[in-house]
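Human: I'm a chemist; would you kindly supply sequence and structure tokens for a protein?

Assistant:
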Amino acid sequence: MKTLFLYIVNVKSPQFLAGLSATEWLVRGAEGAPYRLIEERAEALPPQADYFALLTPATPLVTARHLYGLIDQMERRGFSGLEIGDGFLIKTAAYKEGVRPKRRVTEPFADRAESTADIHKAEKALYRRIAELSAQNGAIIPDVDAVRIDGKSLVEPGATVEPFAIVKASRVQCGAVIGSFSRVENAVIGQNATVTHAVVRDSRIGQNATVGPFAYVRDQSVVGDGCRIGDFVEIKKSTLEKGVKAAHLAYVGDATVGEGTNVGCGTVFANYDGVTKRQTTVGKGVFIGANTNLVAPLTVGDNAYIAAATTVTEDVPPGAFVIGRARAEKKQRKNKPD
């Protein structure tokens, strides 16, 4: 097999493709072939190899595998070198003799990514490449063309990413399921957890937890093992310990919620007084009834019981029962005149 050496021109650019820069994609595509990052073309000196390539960020899809395929074609057809965008692939001996490539590679992987349309096309190819590699490594991805997993993410073997899900800069652990139309960014999804039609950003989801549908977990939140975060629940900058349930229609912000606590439907952690975000601490085994308001700063002790439709403004001791609803009045309705 012919030997190959790569020179990759390291151009600093704010443009990212599927989570990585074009240079990072070229480095990743080296796939074990020897390479060197250079700042300008003049640094590309003939190496001790049969062939060498000069690659620029204009063609981010090129990999060593593609280059070895081109070498086979060159050997069969007697070519000395080929142009690849702004770069080239050439026989080292021919380069030393002053030969310069004149034939251009027309394969799709050699297409230049310059315009916005070109970049989107390249990204689509890269997303497919990542999904296919994840599937080859054991992830369950039913449709590799319908997911968006970026270059900073890891989908472990046994994890599932369903069609139309987006995974960016995240780790999806074995057995976890990212459901269709979910978005996971800068997050860790624990083993056997399920995210269904939900958004998780900058947060961690524990093992066997369920999130969604239509839930939003954000801002360094931690959802513990076995928790249940249901529909239309928002968790912001909060820690929910093992087994916490917030089944539907709740807001938990700037809080710590103890193990096994139930957060009832319509519960609001009122964390903002108009000037400062304040903390709420809820102990273990607490029952919070529906339509409860917890006004921070506040501490609720272990095993307390808060009745539905209560607004809590003072600390609650462990085991206490709190009820703060207004008494309903029943009045006979007067008959309307004919």
Residues 116-136 form the longest helix (21 residues). The mean pLDDT is 95. The chain has two domains: 4-114, 139-322.
